[in-house]
Design a protein that fits this description.
heterodimer, A: 628 residues, mainly beta, Jelly Rolls, Immunoglobulin-like, 4 domains, 7 helices, B: 268 residues, Type 1 dockerin domain, 2 domains, seven-stranded mixed sheet, four-stranded antiparallel sheet, 32% strand
Amino acid sequence: MSVKRLFAPAADVEQGVVTLPPPEATPTRSESVVLVGSFAPATERSRVVRFEFMHAGGSLRLVPLGVDASRWRGRLLVGGQSIPLQGSEALVTRVSEEFASQAAFGIEDATRAFELDAPAGACVVEFRSEVPAGTGAALVVDDRGGAQAAPALIAHLASRVNRAGGALEFVVRGELADRRGLPGGQAVEVAAATVAWSDGVVEQAQAVKGARDGSVRVSFARARAGDAIVRIDGFVPDGRGAPRQRSLFLLARVADGAMLGGAAVVHADGAKPDWIHCDFSVAGAVAGETVFAAAELWAVAGSESRVLGWIGGLSEIATDGGDRFVRLGFDRRQIELAEGETLVFRNIRLQERDGFAPLDVRAEIVPDAKALPASAASAAPLDAAAWGGEPGLATVAVPEVSSFVPPVGSHALVLSHGYCADENPWPLAQFAGDAWPYENLETSLSNDAFAVDLATRAAQFKSYGIVGHSQGGCAALHLYTYYWSGLDWAGPGRLMQCVGAPLEGTPLAGNLAALGAALGIQCGSNYDITPDGAAVWLAGIPTAARAKLHTYTTTFTNVPFFYDYCNIVTDVFLSDPEDGVVENAAGHIVGAQNMGLTTGWCHVSGMRDPAQTGDASRNAVLNAQGAR
Amino acid sequence: MTRIASIAALALGVAAAAYGDGRADLWCIAPTAIADNGAVVGSVTVPPTADVRTIVGVRVRVAATHPWVGDLSFRVRHPSGVEVVLVDRPGMPSVGFPGPWGCGGDNIDCWFDDAAAGAAETTCSVTAVPVLAGSLRPTGALASLRGLAPQGVWSIVASDGVAGDAGQLTAACIEITTAPDCNVNGVDDAVDIAAGTSADVDQDGVPDECGCVADLDGDGAVTGADLAAMLGAWGPCGGCGGDLTGDGNVLADDLAVLLSSWGACGAS
């Protein structure tokens, strides 16, 4: 498949659009506790699961998760009391309950959320059921009670590069907003930290060390390649000094593969004198392996330096007499190489194709300047539309799609579903006859694999625009940025439109991965939709590509005294406004066309408000404005 | 049918003046629709000329509006039936362009010319409109038309190979460069003379086998007046008209040439 050779102007570097953000920029925060377990035999017919936690007293919302959860019989044991978890008008302990969808977690059955006041102390929540022994169960414990300033446990990766064999380390801290709502640092006590590596091995943290600034470093040694699900349990004091139990799940990606070799050669293409190849030596790579590579271009003269632009793209590891290298390139007309200045690469990076986890980063490489050709006479800057190079400059291997649809040859509006969808959510009747529903259901694909699959199936059309829901929007942007496809041939109109796309990830991703594994559901982990995964992915997308994306977000209708969420379960993990899966802030990105936030619509069906893909008025716009 | 004197005139839509005096002439067909998933044949009749001429060069200009040039094929057809493919669904099979449908760019306005650097088949851009522009090398060699006679019904065949998009052939012209070919051997007479294939004793630029070399007084016939002139110059002669063999003498061999062409020129 033909890939683009990306070029971004200096402004994209200066504004951080194409630079890897520091890991502290994408923290995961938690104001709740999530406990997991499984049902064990209690009697001949009954099974029981117990969850234990510490409660600082006051409001408590308990939400069990699992198959058939709405029929589990529960009780809370605290301070010598046994409080039945069912709707109650008792004066001492009122328990309110309401049904809640578990759709966001891939469970068809609804569950119930219980709200009550409970005394401080060690709590045991017990559920009984007739489900088979070993059935997974989870409990979400939310003690915020509508408080404006709930203490939060916050963690982020210590480094953007996490390779197999090295340490996987996190920085953990506490936070509590002051009376003005401004966040303030808070002491944190890490009680436990575990990691489940992708090969199934579960380990405790090797080191938990406090730092002077009150944060705690949690380290897991000898990381194993793949997705690692990390659980951190701790206590953060509230405004009264009472420790509040918190837990959070993080989905981290441990990379394994190519590393930069430290050398680069720059030379002109034999057939296209204006095209400059940049070959970066690599080590530890398999020839033919595809990676994402990027580098900033700087001109250096003495102690002065200025950024010229940024190059990037997917590239296969190539060999030259036993030496391995990864090739990028740029059209020399993209930059104005001043006489006497030296071309230098800075912030060179390699990232995995799937998930874009950073493999290696180098601060600077001075290329072999002897091969740098003299300035061409035709050094006029290129049109801005040339940011992707030319088709045919480079290709990468892609998997074949067995269900390839016979060619049609027309022009279409592709309607894409999102991550792990069980159906295409777009109502076809609200779109014109040239709309085509892309379907690859109940799968978990990286943005890259999703984009390639989408392009391969949509290759039945000459050209198309994409309307993407959820991760389908991310896949569309990925496709347009990195590959030549029918998107590039589309006629006038909006090339890509998305609704509820987790462009900056969703805090749910770690919980989805952890609960999916615990409950035996879902489509597997998906690093691309974590805040970390989304950040390192977005850092490869120049403004020129983002500008072709129109983003829409939605949120719930706020009904005072009844509800202020799309889903009572996911509400615990998300910051308002949100649609039950994606926070508004994460559904829009710098450089894209922000089409706004509308209320009254949630991410998928089964939530408080209708599914956002069913908004007929917006669909009419998506249909009318969509490029074909 | 429109014959146009020059490329500049073509742009202005000006009709041509005289035909064939050694320069290139443009012959254009009328604009026509290119049916979706169909073909259209536009023709122009090139009339015969007073003298015998041969084709020494052909270029073809095609201008068409179409939203997906990868659908289109163009051929030029000589009156004899010889065809040259100008372009056949550019970008097909894929040479790295997006998708399996060939070049998806809009519109064509180019000259197909054997001497062009870039090949029309592989020229494509996602941004340029028209996507095929300037001077491009055709898929087949227009040189294969050299040596053929120019007169007759020429055609340009435009076809659209994929349903879904239609277009319009807005201009299609054949530029035919001809040269005299009096001996009808398919070679420019000047080339025949330069190569020694034909003699040009009188150095009039016309192969002697075509000319009336013994018509010394130029009245269109070899008569007694010409015989008298020859006899008057009998003997050694430096470049005189009667030295038909060019050997520096007017002798019996010259007389034999004169007598063999007795009568009206071109009558034999």
